[in-house]
Structures are given as C-alpha cells and as structure tokens.
Amino acid sequence: MKLKTEITIGIPCYNEEKNVDNTYNNIVGICRKIKGYSFNYLFVDNGSLDSTRKRIELLAQKHKDIRAIFLSRNFGPEASVQALLDNVAGEAFILLPADLQDPPHLIPKFIKKWEEGYFIIIGKYTKSQDSFIIGMLRKLFYHIFKKVSDIEVPVNASGVGLLDKKAVEAINLLPEKYRFFRGLRSWVGFKTAYIEYSRVERKYGVSSYNLISYFKHAERGLFGFSYLLLDLMVYMGFIFVALSFIFLTVYMIVSLFHGNPIKGSITILFSIVFFGGMQLLAISIIGKYIQVIMEETKNRPVYIIDEAINLKI
C-alpha cells in the first residue's frame, strides 16, 4: 500500500481561546476531502494570556494528529512562525493562523499549485477588513520595500501559504535572529506561485496587532533587507557639503562687495534646527542598524519552549 504524502498545517495562536476549536474543525473538514495526503496539525501558542493553551491541550487529548508547542512567553509573531518551521513533519508545510481571516479553503489551492511543481505558494489577498489607514500604510510599506530591497515581495502578500520541504530547510539554514519571514521566504528563491483571495473579518476575539506592531514589523523588513537608508544619509551628506561650499563661496563674494547680506537670528536658528535634525535622523538610522547587529551578536534563541505535546524537543 502506497503511503500518503504527509503535510504539516502550522497554526500560530495568541489569545485565540474562542477560535482554537473552530479553526481545527474547519481545517480538518477541508483536509479530509483532499485525497492522497495525510495531515498533522501543529499549534504554537505564543504565551497567550487567556485559555488558549488549555483549549489546545484538550484538543490534543482527543486527536492524536495534533502536535503543540507552548512558548515560555510572547516572543512575537516571527518566533511563532520559526517554531513551526523548526518542527515541520512531512514533505510540505502550510501556514494558517488561528483567527481564520485567511480561510482554510485555500489549502487545496495551495496543494494543487505544489503538485504543479511550485516550491513556494503565497496567499495574496485582494481584499481585507483592515481600516483605511492600516491598509494604506501596508501598501506603502510593500511599495517601499520592493524598491529598496533586491527581493520580490508583492503588495498584499500575506504570511499564509505553502512551503515545500526544500524551502523550509533553506529558510531554517539562515542564521539571523532578527527575522522577517516574508522577506526570508522570498530571499531563498525557488519557483513561486501566488493565490489571490479575500481576507474575511474575524468572528471571535480581537487582533493583537496594532499600529505599533505594524511599524515594528516594517522595521524588520527595511533594516533586515536594505541598506538604502544608510546610502541616503551618505548621499545627503555629500549634497549638503556641496551646497554649504557653494553657499559659503557666494556669501564671501557678496560680503566682500556689498557687506554682510544676512542679518538677524532667525536664519541662524533655522539652520541650527534643520542641520541638527538631519544629524539626529542620521544617528537614529545608524542606531537602528547597530540594534540589529547587537541582536545578532547576542545569539539568543528566537524563542524558548515551555512545553510540547507529541513532539520530541
């Protein structure tokens, strides 16, 4: 009898007590209709403050196809994804968060593309329930990211999708601690396909993401995959030096023939504030890159596991 190809469905959770059971039931209902494959379901609880952990434990007692990892605290969404990647069992991995905003009916579409020979399949949403401001900022970030980095991450490319075992292993080989999964997923290359879909409104619970979370996520992408901000500071430095030289030359010539043309403190004050602000901005950008370097040199683990179910850790 031919063994079925095994696929891991990774389900990251944070404060999803009302979604855990519903998510599992929905995903299993879809997977049971897919012939020729066996599935295992890997939950990662990222230090939830509600009863998410208890709900996962109860599910794991009833269903032997469930594996679970409980992190010792909330290490952020990138840690959840990496914990999943480190424990993939099977020939492919599908990421699908527990909030069900990215519908489970995408699973067979991902698998179909995988069967066609694609190693990475990415969900790309055409519609979401985000506020106008969040949606606008997200689009702006990905437009900027596409321009400043040398990798392709389309606007509205979500974290959900399928990775072939080869792609999973490639991402796990990357040593950095300051991780940006969507960037790493694109950086490793491989033949990639996109599945368009509409994100739906979550039925239960409240999203843990806020404006600050999105900015921090954007930082990981910009400072982890681009040196453009440092390059801009260098170019601006040269421009200001050149303009200053031209200004001083003209100023000395005018002063020699017509006397001092600049009188009063407003111009001087404006110059101090402007150039002081530019210096502070440049120092801040350099400081962010130093922060990334420090994160890497500390060599701390991306996450710490408190407990695992049906896993050899």
- Please tell me the CATH architecture of the largest domain by its name: Alpha-Beta Complex
CATH topology of the largest domain, by name, is: Spore Coat Polysaccharide Biosynthesis Protein SpsA, Chain A
Largest sheet: 8 strands, mixed
Order of neighbouring strands in the sheet with most strands: 7-5-6-4-1-2-3-8
Uncertain segments are none
Number of strands: 8
The sequence of SSEs as H and E is EHEHEHEHEHEHHEHHHE
Shape: elongated
By DSSP (H or I, 4+ residues per run), the number of helices equals 10
Mean pLDDT score: 80
Give the total of domains: 2
Q: Note the quaternary state here.
A: single chain
Strand content: 15-25%
CATH domain class name of the largest domain: Alpha Beta
Q: Tell me the CATH superfamily of the largest domain.
A: Spore Coat Polysaccharide Biosynthesis Protein SpsA, Chain A
Helix content: 40-55%
Rounded to the nearest angstrom, the radius of gyration is 25 Å
For the record, give the distance between the C-alpha atoms at the N and C termini, rounded to a whole number: 31 Å
Mind explaining what this structure looks like?
The protein is of the alpha/beta class. Helices cover 49% and strands 18% of the residues. The protein has ten helices and eight strands. Strands 7-5-6-4-1-2-3-8 form an eight-stranded mixed sheet, sandwiched between helices. Strand 2, helix 2 and strand 3 (66-71) form a beta-alpha-beta unit. The relative contact order is 0.14.
